[in-house]
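Deviations from the work plan: none for this task. Representative record:
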Amino acid sequence: MAKRMELNEVEVWDGNMAAAQALRQADVDIVAAYPITPSTPIVQNYSKFLADGYVDGDFIMVESEHSAMSGCVAASAAGVRAATATSSQGFALMVEVLYQASGMRLPIVLTVVNRALAAPLNVNGDHSDMYLGRDAGWINLCSYNPQEAYDLTLMAFRIGEDLRVRLPVMVHQDGFLCSHTAQNVRPLQDEEAREFVGEFKPVNSMLDVANPVTHGVQTEEDWHFEHKARQHHDLMNSVPVIKEVFAEFKERTGREYDLVYKYKMDDADVAIVALGTTVESARVAADRMREQGIKAGVVSFRVLRPFPFNEIVEALGDVKAIAAMDRSAPGGTFGMLFNEISAALMAKGKHPVVLNYIYGLGGRDTTIQMLEEVYKQLDECAKAGEAKYPLQQFIGLRGPKLSFY
Amino acid sequence: MARDMKHIDVEEIKDLGWDELIPGAALFSFKEPVEDVVEVPMEERPYAPTNSHEWQVGDWRVEKPVFNRDLCIDCQFCWVFCPDISILSRDKKMIGVIYEHCKGCGICVEVCPTNPKSLLMFPEHMDNEEALKQWPQKEEKKKD
């Protein structure tokens, strides 16, 4: 039996420690991991908890992230709770196995500390790893600070393991800006967290030797399509379960989560849509704009997959101009947020001005001032009723102004 | 609702809809729990319709191993080394090859220690009786 760790009502944890503590309290049976900056401290902290007797599970050191996720797939199929952490290049190396995990319907939890993808090599935060994995069939939860990284990691187990869902869950946090920034975190005590997460419920476990089962089967044109359809159906239908878990968590902690995050959107004319720590900077910028008479708001995805189609359109309400801010190199088109938000708005018959801003790549600082500048551009567009700027602009970039479309 | 894939009729499987499948494409071996499976002979195991035992899976073979009872010494090497379950042996007595499952890999022929071999590869289309007629003679040891 694992030792109980006495926690203060308020702990000072960075995002990595917050995620590591959530994994410890969730009684994960197998963590198979390979370290990579900036997520290394998650598994490093976890292995220290294990060595000190605070974890009743096993830590498997593997030779790559491909093997880390493979170890989690094996453990989960065998019938136990499995989790790991990664970033960037490690995430990229895991991608093949991410699709196996979701296709095999294994409720693994992956804490992702978002970092840029090479080349050029870069250890700092942006969202290119998150964007790389967004079609992998996982539930994607997004946090903006260490408290949320902790909360969402605990909730990820409940959501993914629910018998109506049985899908793997990623919890994203920004590299360094969240993962290495110590902040106040209000944790649950061990027994409260354990009670919330609950016992792992094996489904078609490989360790049930009297009922042998084959996992990881081959299907061709005869069955592949039906299985992918079932997987998509169950991912889309995880929404009520996500809402239930959010509601139960609120009852226990008072902390409220929803599919979409909104800040001062009730009367907003202009809105920034962003992910990660930029959400918190945008809140400050929005407040400053409001002092200048510009009704500014912020919208973000708490749940990126399944995509909250109705909720995102509803959150944007009747704003006149929107900045879709993508922190990932767009690779020859608009950024993902621009594409998905524009499509959702169009499908609902709404036609505000939507501008795409590419920002913060490789950990480039995104200042409050830059976000105020974005709001000012949006304000001009809102007043004119049309796009007064190119649809895609790179901001915070040295050299001549770069824009497209 | 997922269908009860342990007890479904084999003929019904091809008509299942996406909503009736087992999530994750897990396939069950047996209809009922089997304790200590190594003690239960193959013909007595309650194979589920999703077990490949119930299906013809040797149909892409181009060469087949033919068994010659007259030469076999029942050493069980072929039974041990077959990567499938295609060698039928009972009470340490070799009975023959299960062609429904044999993929024609030739490992049984490779490990057969008799002279001449008791298992040899022949073209898939040749009758086994014709193959037995063509069986080679014992190879003489080379004298130095």
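Residues 34 and 64 of chain A are 6 Å apart (CA to CA).
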